[in-house]
């Protein structure tokens, strides 16, 4: 299983998701969580305590078939990772979109000042929200969520059925990401869609986009999965169909237990 700077790339062709109960909070954990959350909001008023999905465990059901156990929680639960010995803390689960330009470069975005991570470069995407009512949280739902994040952050309206499951990442701090690949588009078209969005939005989640073949081309902080994902895309060339087929460098390995802490999403929904 490839690992770069603590980031794992999991070769997943199929996902199964099942809801489970959240670990109970002790009175001391709840008190510490609320205190840390209030401190975090004072430091960054853009934080938003909305509903979100956390990842309880990962396990291989079969080769390339990954089972994800998830729980309903809110963003404030992420601060439990700062409470030593907390048994109630779980990492986040997010989706992201690998959007190549037709010249083989990968589109990335820089988080704007109104988000929880100003200046950080990452793929379009965000934390997964729990389904409403009795709606399912399955691979199709994640694909739809990824399509919504893509249009909200870049202006690119891509039908969910045009997104293909590509990789699952587990970050250096344990955040779990489901990455979908999108059909390649001309860089000029992608820039035009983003410019239209930026002109229409008062507070866009990305303040700029870039097209790169190497993460070293970017200045500023990077989300932990970005460097190995950009390198992975570059290793298989500019042919998008080949990107989807080329998985031979990844291998299944036992995955189990609760991963480490996850990234939170931008403050805006």
Commentary on this structure:
The chain has a single domain, classed as Nucleoside Triphosphate Pyrophosphohydrolase (Alpha-Beta Complex), CATH 3.90.79. 23% of the residues lie in helices and 26% in strands. Strands 1-2-10-11-6-9 form a six-stranded mixed sheet. The radius of gyration is 18 Å and the shape is globular. The C terminus is likely disordered. This is NUDIX domain-containing protein. Pfam families: NUDIX. It comes from Nonomuraea longispora.
Provide the domain count.
1
Distance between the termini: 33 Å
Biggest sheet, open or closed, and with what strands and sense? 6 strands, mixed
> Rg from C-alpha positions?
18 Å
The fourth-level CATH homologous superfamily is Nucleoside Triphosphate Pyrophosphohydrolase
What is the highest CATH level, the class? Alpha Beta
Give the number of DSSP strands.
Answer: 12
Examine the coordinates and then state which fold CATH places here, giving the name of the CATH topology: Nucleoside Triphosphate Pyrophosphohydrolase
Based on the coordinates given, report the CATH architecture: Alpha-Beta Complex
Residues in helix, %: 10-25%
Order of helices and strands: EEEHEEEEEEHEEHEHH
Structural class: alpha+beta
Q: Runs with pLDDT <50, length 5+?
A: 238-269
User: How large is the share of residues in beta strands?
Assistant: 25-35%
> How large is the count of helical segments?
5
Q: Give the integer mean of the pLDDT values.
A: 86
